[in-house]
Amino acid sequence: MAAESPEILTYRPATLPDGVAPEPSARGALYGLCSRLFTDPDDELYELLADGTVTAECRELLEQTTLSVEPPDLTVSEEHETLSARFNDLFVIGYSEVVDKTDGTMNNQGPPVSLYESDYRAERSWNDVNVDLARAYEFFGCEVDSEVRRNHDHLRLELEFMSYLCRREAAVDPGVSAARIDFHDRHLRGFAAGLADAVGAESGTGLFGRAADFLARFSTADVEELAAREIENPATREGGSNHPGEGGVGR
């Protein structure tokens, strides 16, 4: 899965092809927007954040869904350099310090907030998390862009994958909603909650704190509605619609 294009504001119900359901398409666009937010903003994204376009777009997308989620304020007032520095301080820059000068023992710490799911999954190894994700991506014909060089459990990749599943549900496979429940249960929902807690423990998080809070609320509402829908009208899981890994990441 390649990184999302900077041109994120492309969803409009009127522009969808015939036969494509607008509601899951809007959810997919929201996951794609969330993916774009968790990056060091380039010039184009910064301008869209600063002039309120992203805030308005997020609100419009939420209105196209059946979810009751309060829209976030994603508008920024700080300078571009300040916003970039905040992203790096939260998600990129760690530190090292000498704890024993006699033998040179170092204490190496990563950034305050990790963007990798495995750091929030004490009960599962890094390998288990990433292998399970790799199988899920492969099962749906997706792969990580080799030029991006991120582990499979990076937040943006998981959000892009969920965006893809939503769009697949909208266009060709309504039954893929069962797969989305599985992916939430096995990966994204707990990741989003852990990320929101980690960002919430930091001060001065600004846009990224609001984005993490929104992702947690949005993903919670998404999976709860999917689960209720599944109870009322169980989606078929026959014909190889489940990922063959342990417990299955659905298709």
TrEMBL record:
TM helices/strands, residue ranges: none
Q: Which SUPFAM superfamilies match?
A: TorD-like
Q: Where is this region: Disordered?
A: 229-251
Gene3D superfamilies for the chain:
TorD-like (1.10.3480.10)
According to UniProt, the name of this protein is: Molecular chaperone
